[in-house]
């Protein structure tokens, strides 16, 4: 990809959250770092975090002298499109690190791969990441935005589901959009308008999809087009002819796109149509047609491609080229005549075939030689299923003649094509803009393909989250039964923190993942699976849902969980959405509950939208009175069969309040066929533990009330003693102060946990120190 998408100077945290996110988005093959950050020098925090996060991507040290702002500006002045240079200079003013990074990247390409670019042929863009949603790396994995957790090649992920794009450029843009959803309504609403128009005008939609079908990977083509070979070779000459044929195919494919968008009325589709109008592309096609034969097209089969390269340049442009082509044609005709004579001589029906390795060879059916001996002149024999492939010395000699003449043709054609490419590169800015417009249109058409086959709705962007009958987009597609939709409601003032309880397999994880996926879909400009949907614009998306440990880092499930939660708590704010699933289950029940409560309190105070799924029902009870907290649960229905076996039916429907089902784990175990005797023991132990806890709770509460009453009675007696004493005013005041301090201290001790109350001692009457009686 020759577009230098980003060399960012990012306003980041001490954990480099945005830097890591940007690296994840663009999947670099190498990561360049200043050489002083590598051992034996002191290792920087950034180096450590990149190395830990991107274990399969090599980190390349580059000497500090290559990170030069002056060199970066020179590269910018030399390589960027002429019309873009001044605008980019203004955009990067003060962005020292971005310019230095551009210098380092270009120096590395030159020194390591000997890659040089034609002047003013790169579309260099400076784009701030602040206008996009930041999705932490854990959320990208756990939400299966790009890849399925269990099967890496499966399409059961958000990208696989949405990727109905027909061009490689559209697929790449879609992937980047999913990892970086927009945070400005000015970027999102035009996509909604375009998608609405495409889905309501069926004829235009089908014409657009049809027009997009003919595009190859134009981004890679344009990259090859602007790279200058350091040293000429036959391979580069062949590729130059191939590239000009692909450019021709690309240019001729743009016109149908323009025609398909003629009925469009919305702004975004109009802009795409304007970019691909005939006045933009026709000069490029006219230039190519002056040199390239109008019937020459890019094909993929080896023999046809060689023929196309041979006859691509028009006749009478280069005399030596015409002579070389005549020689090529005569040698090829000689081969076909020889094969015909060979078939007649041996009474065969062999046909000439071609591949890049063997060149021409002869193929005939094995059945033709079933009762005959294969002639000795047939060499290089290979059996492939029902066929025999072979050559003769004559065919080998003719192959050499044809190859020599083909090389001569390519070399002569290259002299003409190289001059043509210099002229075509002048139109690189226009071609890049057309390519980007085609990619955007392909993404919108991909959304339209999904929307027209599913019941999706256009979202409303507001400060509130209100979704009616929302469905999980991926599970709805792969589920064998109809998906049960659910509602969501949260505002900036109310219900920002929602606790989701319910028994195992009731759908808690699916419920909280659905809202996160719908939020991403809404902010990339796609409609969502619901009957009505209103979303706030989210700037940060966090997720803590997996239960995996990290063997490479020697970290247990609980350690990974705590590290990820620490990261979330440091970075979450009022413009964030977080989904938390079963926090605290990696350690003991008591510690897990305590940690879950403390972290939930911090999340409540952050002001973020949080969906917190948990099995800790005490958490729901403790936080129920907190402002902005809402308790919900996934409903189930429990019945008993004629065989006295409990049967649990998952309703997958969210309802108000915490889960009310007692011992749902035991009930579920019975429903899946656990032996009755084990269930009886488990139920007996569960009942006993619950009763014991209730008794302890009642006893503890009653005991505290008794102690409080005793303290009050003791206080009354002490006051009576002071009243009846003959102490002077100073002594009486001192006595009352001591009485007050003692009473407050013992009342506070009474509020302490039970083990502390037992150690607090009884209550004694405080006797005045000086009593005249």
Automatic annotation (TrEMBL):
Residues 749-773 are annotated as: Disordered. Residues 576-592 form the DNA mismatch repair proteins mutS family domain. GO terms for biological process: mismatch repair; reciprocal meiotic recombination. GO terms for molecular function: ATP binding; ATP-dependent DNA damage sensor activity; mismatched DNA binding. Heterodimer consisting of MSH2-MSH3 (MutS beta). Forms a ternary complex with MutL alpha (MLH1-PMS1). Belongs to the DNA mismatch repair MutS family. MSH3 subfamily. This is DNA mismatch repair protein MSH3.
